[in-house]
Fold each of these.
Amino acid sequence: MKLTDQYKAAKYKFQGNGPRSIDTLKEALNSIQEDRFADLYGKGEIIEEFEKKFAVILGKESAVFMPSGTMAQQIALRIYADDKNNKKIAYHPLSHLELHEQDAIKILHGLETVLLGEPNRLFTIKDLMSVEENVGTLLIELPQREIGGYLPALNELEEIIEYARSKNMYTHLDGARLFESLPYYEKSPAEIAAYFDSVYISFYKGMGAVAGAVLAGKKDFIDKAKIWKRRHGGDLISLYPYIIAANYYYEKRKGVMSKFHEEAIELAKYFNDLPAVCTTPEIPMTNMFHVHADFSSDQLEKIVSKIFSEFDVSIAGGIKKIDEKTSKFEISIGEEFSKIPKELLKQVFGRLNEYIKVRS
Amino acid sequence: MKLTDQYKAAKYKFQGNGPRSIDTLKEALNSIQEDRFADLYGKGEIIEEFEKKFAVILGKESAVFMPSGTMAQQIALRIYADDKNNKKIAYHPLSHLELHEQDAIKILHGLETVLLGEPNRLFTIKDLMSVEENVGTLLIELPQREIGGYLPALNELEEIIEYARSKNMYTHLDGARLFESLPYYEKSPAEIAAYFDSVYISFYKGMGAVAGAVLAGKKDFIDKAKIWKRRHGGDLISLYPYIIAANYYYEKRKGVMSKFHEEAIELAKYFNDLPAVCTTPEIPMTNMFHVHADFSSDQLEKIVSKIFSEFDVSIAGGIKKIDEKTSKFEISIGEEFSKIPKELLKQVFGRLNEYIKVRS
């Protein structure tokens, strides 16, 4: 059985809010008793109330709901590039825009990217200061997902933002996991977003809604973003299926991010106690981390599958090959983790320890 | 009360499938008893089965579900432009791409448009033959919505397509209302789509689903379209809310388009019997038509509002000013029309006749 299918089938799961299924939407929709009029091309109570609510939560003048972060962030960067007449965007080498968007920022919008620092760590102010090009916009992702969810210290973030402002750059926050970052910073979303000219947030990571994003910033910026949303084909006649779910799961899960963070720390410790295994970060800064193992992806998949067969526990929904001898997987703590009995967790790691010793 | 609010409030409505509301989605979702796994970035049974089904319905090798027609059509035209290294796209002056997409085809994709014929009529083969530019792709909208829903005769369509092919143009069908056109042609969707290299269809016009579109064509074309869907930000983690509704309402309403067409003919006749009023087309070719009146939009709105107050009937959800003395509105027949008792319909037009005579 494939690891993705094991995840769906397993009674217990290390990560996530459970398999994505249509009941997620049914639960949200059925929470609304009365019938409500649909939003129509960005107008109507459902979408306007939601956008106002998140403008306030994020401490910005205005906000717009977008079908995806891919759309929201390209639009933000394009507006800034046009405004400054400067096509140069700086971000981390493993930014979502660099890895997962089919080079849209370059091919669709004609922008140019400047990669900051090394792929395996956060970029620093030194990396930014060493850039020779005249950068128009700086994008910072909090946390940096592709390296396991690292967050810069708040004073480091402040330094970077201050430098970027001194160089007349726009600053945009890729806050796909902003709410997941708040327990570490002990700040409100608005306090973190205040460092940036604009912020994008997502609703289907820790929140576990269906899809969708919010982009927030100054009023004239959001007015322009709505025009670009139409251009991208994102101004659907009705977006209420995503908005209702986003609102429902935001209210349901906004209070549990600290718990998810603590559980990530607990689980990472278990992994770090194993031989030939370590996590990045060693102590998770959010609800997520990466588990690195000195095994080939085939070897690691076999071990994970044996645990599934023996304990009905899914450790990983997929494994990524790093090289012939090492591999990794990602954990994002959601509602599933706390369903695992503590005794079972100990048994699983006891058995993992045995398997790893045999193979090491 | 605004006309849009009258439409929502009125017991009887000339047009549409009723106010768009969240119950539309609830009805579709609740038709699925068991839980089903969500689609994930274009993969999974829900989306793949649906795409295969519509590839067959449209007689094409492959199909992809898109969040919107705006996205689907820009993508189709961009693929053809890149393939031919020819940025020139020809279409009707009132194409959706020209009027309602914030010039995305030009600003986002850098394509150039050639407008065929006059705004107030279908373009003909003569219009196409008189184009001096070397056009790469021809887009035809069936029916031409902005002039009331005209359709070319099938032999005229054949001539146009034959000429376009002889000039090595790609041909794309804007089939936003393709299913609404089939009773007139007495053809299957695949038979009409067969004239074209690719076709886009919509699910929230006559079908009355929530949102969404399908783009269909050759396999390599659709493979490219999926990459562009990602670039546009349309490859959402899950599109099932729209897909489930599209499938449900397609099955519910695919058989009623002939009835809607006949009812449009019936209602248009009522309007054409009024003084100072005519419809385009005079005899509707689909479920839609436009009603033109020799009144200012203010005058016409007052008449429509009086009918609402008196009979609890919404004639129009909005009125468009043409000039100081003339105005128009659009009728698209849906499930609401047949709910109006015939006797009431006669009374409404009797009263309209009185109002118009007084003012003429």
Note: The domain at 3-19+256-359 of chain A is CATH 3.90.1150.10 (Aspartate Aminotransferase, domain 1).
Amino acid sequence: MASTDMRFSSRDEHRSWLSAQARLPVGFRVGAAGFGFTPVEVSKPARMTATVIALDRPTEAFAALFTKNAFPGAPVIIGRSRLSEDTLGAIVINNKISNVCAPDGVGTSERICAAAASALGIESRQVLPSSTGVIGWRLPEAALVQALPQTVAALQSESVLPAADGIVTTDLYAKIRRVDLAGGSIVGIAKGAGMIEPNLATMLVYLLTDLDVPREALRASLQHAAAMSFNCMSIDGDTSTSDTVVALSSRAVACPDLLAFQRALDQVCVDLSEDIARNGEGVHHVIRVAVTGAPGIEVARGIGKSVVNSPLFQCAVCGNDPNVGRLVMAIGKFVGEEFPGVDLSRAVLTMGGRRIFADGRFILDHETEAALVAHLRSAELYASTPPADGLTFRPPIGYPPHERCVEIGIDLDAGGASCVVIGTDRSHEYISENADYRS
Amino acid sequence: MASTDMRFSSRDEHRSWLSAQARLPVGFRVGAAGFGFTPVEVSKPARMTATVIALDRPTEAFAALFTKNAFPGAPVIIGRSRLSEDTLGAIVINNKISNVCAPDGVGTSERICAAAASALGIESRQVLPSSTGVIGWRLPEAALVQALPQTVAALQSESVLPAADGIVTTDLYAKIRRVDLAGGSIVGIAKGAGMIEPNLATMLVYLLTDLDVPREALRASLQHAAAMSFNCMSIDGDTSTSDTVVALSSRAVACPDLLAFQRALDQVCVDLSEDIARNGEGVHHVIRVAVTGAPGIEVARGIGKSVVNSPLFQCAVCGNDPNVGRLVMAIGKFVGEEFPGVDLSRAVLTMGGRRIFADGRFILDHETEAALVAHLRSAELYASTPPADGLTFRPPIGYPPHERCVEIGIDLDAGGASCVVIGTDRSHEYISENADYRS
């Protein structure tokens, strides 16, 4: 779990912390280049960034997880087929348009891989494509292919920051996490701010390590890390068509301890999933729901997801309103629908560590109400400011001021399973962002 | 399905239409009375309305459906037990506080039933209680009991309007629908504006008829009507702890044709469910999703629900932004998660009757985009106006200006099942309403 003591008071301070996290593991190079284009579907100019993450030498040790959405993007379709290749040498990523169900989308992505491969001197099937952005539009293939030599010319082996910056869409800031271990490191970057309820993977996450972990062990480790991080979070309950998590090892540094590697990878993934939530569209509060004493992991995770996906509970948290009735509604909604046999009679609920429900009844009074309001206020990232045009809300800060969460405890006392689910509130800024995202 | 040609240009015009709908069936009386109280949990004065719906003579012909939420309110617990009573004589309803998991909540509701029964000269077990409003708070029992004689004194047999007005919370207007049939009638009223994804029932709906339908036939008819109306709608995906639908027959008019009765009851329920959506918290657009060619009803309903419950699609519709990529995302999210075997390759999607997706690909160009924007604008109930304090949005009208919907067609060409699902967009007004609902 990320440190809740971390504090930033300005964008510059956050950028300098990010730069310190960004040092690349041995054996990787990263580059990005921006260019202008006009989508075929609307006649409004836009800008896109092409990003390349390259290995000095293609590696056998790579792993990837993809969305379970039944309309996957073309890069996901290609990415799945790359899993059976012998080696992977690079990832080519664009933002702004996600290349989902577009005419000849797979052909377009394959030709972009071929252009990247040619510029890098490797094979097309050694390149994994990723796209994020508007669903349904066509990629500006010619402009993207033209930008790739410039992207490859920009490759450098110092910092992952150009890639963390290059892959964003509506994100307010780049997301980078690292763990140093046994003379090597794991460095992860993430893109994601909306359409986030990952299912076996999240929006776009790239995990780079020089620690030598063989392919099968790396794939198992990634499954484990994703199950407890990206698969236990939601910003809006919408599962993207493009969710992709990739782990690459350059195998440059011996890995003496696979268990330590697993713990480090888990840490990077949990930290990134919290970063994604914290930077979710319009997020004022990150909500952390710890469910314990559940009869099974599906019950624990489902209850946590139901709480963080309840629009009414999300709105109440946004307004610093401890409307704990909606918390109970969200638990009862899920259990009544999915697991009606689960015994809720011994459930104990806490908010900010304070007991609010036990023995089937609420424990509410003026003092508790005041304490819960204080807890919500302490976890607020920012308050809304009236928009200049009266209607269009924008977050007033471009960095995370702290890492505190609204802490919800749900102990069912009905078994041994537990789960921590990360979610967010729902705000005017989310509505403004998404009522006309494409304009 | 409600007429989409219906138009109202003012609140007065809508009220006079409601009054014409409100004529009570033979054998019923309705009364309501308001009173002030202060919740124990916060020290802010509020007002509540006590409403009574009474039969001239208790009836054997009554039916009720209740929420599947695993934390049901005290009135739901009592209501379930009333189903096995010989007769029902009255319903006593309060708004503002829903009496869910409150200390001695069942005892409180039983004592309120007893007070109502005493004022009406019937037995306590012949009274069904209903409560709606804040979850977790305690009912102001003494004040409510004190208000009941006044409520009973106000009983009259002309109009259901006092009850339709009395049961609302955040609703902008009362909801009444009627069908006249064979010399009798069915008149229904509904309360509901938030926490609406009913599951076997919706928030509060009372269906009164003088047509003589025996208990078992009435119960079967209500199941059928609810399955295609209240169970096919969602405003925010949150299933209330208090959902209740009651049907009462005074048996005053012979019912010559049970099939015609079923059709009439279906019509009243579908109309009310559309009214509930149209009057949903902050709703700018009602969305009607017609799913056809599905391999089963669960697939058809699930796809429709996934579309109308997608926060991203809801926000796009609110902004008159035809972001149809999010429509495809929402379909794929549900099918990938719940029915991964369903073949989507022949799916054809339409919006406003215009084909936007076929053969696995989008069909998008400038002209289609313009047509879709025009369709969204035509279905808009109102546009947001900048709030006086810069932050707190309120709907600018208190009546439904028309009954047009955003029309989505999803033909899977993969079976014979179909379903129409009603939903809504997501707006600043919803956020404002729910960020501090209890204040």
Note: The domain at 286-435 of chain B is CATH 3.10.20.340 (Ubiquitin-like (UB roll)).
Amino acid sequence: MDISAVMNTIGKQARAAARELAVASSEAKAGALNAAADAIWEKREAILAANAKDLDYGSEKGLSPAMMDRLMLDETRIQGIVDGVRAVAAQPDPVGEVIEAWTQPTGLHIQRVRTPIGVIGVIYESRPNVTADAGALCLKSGNAVILRGGSESFHSATAIHACLMEGLKAHGLPEHAIQLVPTRDRAAVTAMLQAVEYIDVIIPRGGKGLVGLVQKEARVPVFAHLEGICHVYVDGAADLEKARRVLLNAKTRRTGICGSAECLLVDRAFYDKHGDILVRDLIDAGVEVRGDAAIAKTRGTVAAKADDYGHEFLDMIIAAKVVDGVDEAIAHIRNYGSNHTDAILTEDDAVANRFFHQLDSAILMRNASTQFADGGEFGMGAEIGIATGKLHARGPVGAVQLTSFKYLVTGDGTIRS
Amino acid sequence: MDISAVMNTIGKQARAAARELAVASSEAKAGALNAAADAIWEKREAILAANAKDLDYGSEKGLSPAMMDRLMLDETRIQGIVDGVRAVAAQPDPVGEVIEAWTQPTGLHIQRVRTPIGVIGVIYESRPNVTADAGALCLKSGNAVILRGGSESFHSATAIHACLMEGLKAHGLPEHAIQLVPTRDRAAVTAMLQAVEYIDVIIPRGGKGLVGLVQKEARVPVFAHLEGICHVYVDGAADLEKARRVLLNAKTRRTGICGSAECLLVDRAFYDKHGDILVRDLIDAGVEVRGDAAIAKTRGTVAAKADDYGHEFLDMIIAAKVVDGVDEAIAHIRNYGSNHTDAILTEDDAVANRFFHQLDSAILMRNASTQFADGGEFGMGAEIGIATGKLHARGPVGAVQLTSFKYLVTGDGTIRS
């Protein structure tokens, strides 16, 4: 297969589809998504059969149990995919929304109106549900999308994509609105990262390997979704019970999501007052605590190595360190964090304000679990992920964050003096 | 000079300054800008002397009269620069503004708060005032800036930059908040375009050569400010007097700005009804009209060549063409426009809506002059230019558009179920 030629064709088709989609009606887009959801449910056996092929391939490749779990579909997970697509269908259409409107002294009436971005490239790894989630969010926001799933989920993604195509067809939307790259060849990723002519923004969803490739090769703008190296800082003025509750939730509710806590920073003042109770809670919950010298005194902990700080475990493991107050916590997070989500536990407003002011993570939390880092929990609907960059999209990226805007200006023969 | 080493040092200094600036007080920033304005006025003789050196260099290089005019400073223009810096000082500080705030059913209180982007690179050409304008807007928005002016304006930019530094110093702000690249070597531009580690966004202000270089070499995200190939479409349902007034203003008020009209599209229905009056108006005003076959029948016009369409003249020249209705106008603008500003003259709401809906320029106007494409005229304050890209900033780019945001989330020991 001539990857370059294939990717050029896909790019041109996406551009043409984007022009049609930009002016597609809200009804057609929602209708197509509901029809796609119907098709996914009806074709669930074919999707599961495709997924079985991927699982075989994954076993042969020797994927880790965690990777195999991400790859695996069953009827419950397919129901989740269907519900997700329907939820996006039911959201309001962001395109055409008047974001602001005002009148100037000249008499000009100015509106800022939401528009699609154009063509979005999504590069992801093994989770087959991203095919449906990303396809649905891009369609909702009037963008054409080029999806490039991981080689492990190739058959599952292809089967789900076929259902999305049915939805598009049933409602007269361009078939190239949602395209899936039809090859496992890694060269297709490089081609996407360089396709400035055809792709307006790339959303990479994946681990270190993908992030590194993107940083090295991307010419197309990127909404970076880096790792979630989330910190929980327990201040000397924290409430003990809130701290215990929030920390356990932040680490253990689900360990595989990007909002799970990966590092505990405890103020020495808290430690002096309450001892190692937080560390013991974690150990009792089955968490491996990799601590600095002070923390490693507690039975059952492990001495932390240097690279345990700034590490995304996505597992029942946490790095831990005693710090001298909020400023050392801030310095640690600046050094080791990934600008995703970081939390402070404190009853002291001044300390909380300092944490909020001095840090620049996409999401900062006070007395709340980092596991709330989620578009749905923010009331923003379904999301494609949490953006850790600073341009355009930041934090939860849902349909609204996948839009741009234009100014519509109306006069009455108005001229500039 | 080792350009790579110099640019690395500048980049590191900018990052350090950005961290300080992000938490600088509104008072310090405004104070520094007012002090800089004072210094520019006090040092005006030194600035004019520096400008004289640049003008000598420009003559030697054989710059065009238009280029020499852009380069030239006099006391009036320096007063304009001073007023511009003071106006930015007087604007509200965007940093820290609560853009949105809401409470979720979980009890979480969420705020979306404006933050600086970080480090901005501005690459521009001969206008010395950009040094002050861009420096002021970046400082206002809490960003460190690396300025790279054109080689022609090197001495003027250096003299103005020295005044900005005085302002920073007088108010205790980091001296590296506003840095000017201290070399005319073109390699510095390439280094900036690739400095992903040190620069968060590049704003290129210049002609085709710069735009081409940026498109070819940029690894850092770019707020593109392409040419303003602005179209005026006069529909069959246009009011004759409004059309005459707006068209003349759009073309002739100032020809050298990006919002000046470069192409007239006249609906055949208008032409049949009113004849060539618009073309005669333009000729009477001293405009060279380069028309298609229909328009070139008018005495005094010139036959258009193919490349007159889609050309930014920035002069008393306009391309002109008769089209069959709004759809042909839309197709022409999609083909030849630069997504900057395009206008329709019509009294027909349906036709105007079609123009607004089908086109995707940053600014679309109805019955108003394209010369209003300006941050001040939009009520948005001083601007660095009109962005023609679709990500983050679009249309007038002022201090607000140079910001990002973060989410501040407050709970009360709140955990996710």
Note: Chain B has 14 helices and 16 strands.
Amino acid sequence: MKKAEDFSEWYNEIVERASLTDKRYPVKGMNVWTPYGWKIMRAIDACIREELDATGHDEVCFPLLIPEDQFAKEKEHIKGFDEEVFWVTHAGLTPLDVKLLLRPTSETAMYPIFSLWVRSHADLPMKTYQIVNTFRYETKQTRAFIRVREIHFFESHTCHVDYEDAERQVRQDYEMLSRLARKWCLPYLLLKRTEWDKFPGAVYTVGIDTVLPHGKTLQLGSIHQYRDNFSKPYDIKYEGNDGEHRHVHQTTFGMSERLIGAIVAIHGDDKGLVLPPDVASIQVVVVPVLAKGATDTVSKSARELTSELESAGIRVHIDERDIRPGAKYYDWELKGVPLRLEIGMKDIEKGVVTLVRRHCTEKTLVDRKGIADAIRGVLEEIAADLLADASAAMNANTVTVDSLEDLPDKLIKTGWCGSEECGHRIEDLSERDMIGTPIADEGYKGMCVVCGKPTTTPVFIAKAM
Amino acid sequence: MKKAEDFSEWYNEIVERASLTDKRYPVKGMNVWTPYGWKIMRAIDACIREELDATGHDEVCFPLLIPEDQFAKEKEHIKGFDEEVFWVTHAGLTPLDVKLLLRPTSETAMYPIFSLWVRSHADLPMKTYQIVNTFRYETKQTRAFIRVREIHFFESHTCHVDYEDAERQVRQDYEMLSRLARKWCLPYLLLKRTEWDKFPGAVYTVGIDTVLPHGKTLQLGSIHQYRDNFSKPYDIKYEGNDGEHRHVHQTTFGMSERLIGAIVAIHGDDKGLVLPPDVASIQVVVVPVLAKGATDTVSKSARELTSELESAGIRVHIDERDIRPGAKYYDWELKGVPLRLEIGMKDIEKGVVTLVRRHCTEKTLVDRKGIADAIRGVLEEIAADLLADASAAMNANTVTVDSLEDLPDKLIKTGWCGSEECGHRIEDLSERDMIGTPIADEGYKGMCVVCGKPTTTPVFIAKAM
């Protein structure tokens, strides 16, 4: 299956052929994390933990099951999730007095406890996160990593003295995201969702969206400003310096296993996955190219090379299977290992190693001496290349229009006056979703594509995955 | 509350006072992992991952929800769990066609997929594990870490060509356990459960039990030999060298958050927790003892000390809060930090640092020069002391008897002929559970405490937590 011909089929096939997931589990939308897929997810989680720990967030873990009465406290929130939660109604043979639901997200599990944890201004800001499984009863067609019913994700939840401090947190989230996305080589847009599309209970929602090769957008996560919409029903208050009790202001930030979906979709090619070095469980594979009579020398040299890279902190694997080198190349290309080192008798004699980059199959020679530093540099170059290529592709997949006729299968930018009426009309006419407006002023000048009013607000519309 | 006076109350109080858990979540037996408790659990998980990865196990992650029909395939297994699982019956407002249960353990989630993963003898042994949350509807009184309804645990699942290879795995599990328990400073017994107490579906079950200070036993985990009891109903077969298809033989090994319960219960004292260095998220706390006029010198010196230890890979924290040193000592003793370093003007002048061990409050001086190596040595000594103390306590809490009258509140060892009839009689007469027989031949010679027949098999009976 060719990526350019049928992206969707290519994606479904590649995640299985590369052993990222097993979709044969007998519950729809609940897939098995294979050893390889789970290693990549854990590498992503490690990036997230590093970033959240460094910015003063404490990792916690709240119960999975939420009692119905706690869930119902914030009215908008329950309306938003009513039809997509799984309900536990029985324990053993006994019906439960209070039904329990599997968390679709943890506001309603955490906030009753936050109201006990937050006492005074000295407790604030209180910044927590957890990395857990979450559940949504998706009725649309499921797709590995992208639309599943058991979702691996992280969610950070913060409490602040006031709206302004919560806003500072949102800006810190943007900075964290920028560093993380660079590691994952993923370009993205930060788009403020429309009023009718924001998270149930939020004052505003900023979606983190990327564009896939076939022009549809994929939401990777979101950042929400809650103000005191949750702290009031859940009674999360602090005593200020002045002895007054006030409700905290809250934010959340979350991203899911969709990150793997985006990495596969954006970087992969017809030969298989292409993994960013920070995410790859194997960053470098060493393939000894054995020749008759020199087997021992080459093996020894390849092993020394491997352990030298290992000591330098590079995630390296040596492939000593008794099969042709070509078959090995095929396997590791499918698995997306960013860099392959070939070492044969000729290389040894010349004091070099042959490097093959996965994403462009460029072949270069590097000196055997001081190779660890060289490899580290190459891995950084690869990451920069992947991000540059992906950013260029996203730009190429974005067009600005001033009419909604004959729209291409791309991310569309156009003018919008900001009224809900014109917004819905744009969605109807374009047969697309309005995914939001950029968070920063871009100096845009145009006209609402429906009513013709001058506007400084562009809006993005797209077919969303 | 004094540990010696009311162990049970002391335990309940200490886990909350030390902020290991929050029991105020509104579902019984489902507690919140606080930042401090979760750090300790993650340190334990890290030990487990290191051990399992090093012995060739692949980490995976299977779905939480198991369809009723898959669960029912092994008849003994479902009988054993029927009354203690949580059932998901609805998704949104829709009743599910096939009910789903929350995994109490993952045999029935994994084995339908194992039957797809295992093809030939070249795939064997297949060794996997996962670290996940699991659910049991406990009807007995709940207790933090020890008896909860959402349980954090690891489970390894292995497939082998035959019974003998599965037996080799069981022996490897014993070795892994021995290394792990040394890190956690936990003494334990390996006891083969009676036929009527083994895991539903197992050929035999070896319980991993420890003895708590009040003489009750706590099961930390278990190791099971399944032979082909599961591979037959789940059809897990491989093609041998000879072209024949055979069912695999399977084992499992698992331990839960009870490990934290045991660490708290066994090592803690009236001042709080006492954490083994390998488990402590803070291994060393540095407390600057400031004197008038020398504040800057002491602070500077304390910070240098801290960063030197940090660079040496020691998990160190400097407490620079503006409160009395005594108040700091109190806090860190409650939190169980294994080693405290005090540094004041006098220490600096003498070129020393004052060391205070948490478990014995012994005070010693060490040279400031080369301190990182010295501290590493002291942490190892502390771990050895903790294990030695705990082992001595377990021995003191174990008695061998030849009559079941006036039994003390301890772990009891006595003779048993091996018959089920005498077994049940021993349980009735002693008002205790028979927790099993030692896995190794101890050269025991005695008589069945009921029928008087000579026997070489001792049996352990106890009140189990």
Note: The longest strand of chain A covers residues 150-160.
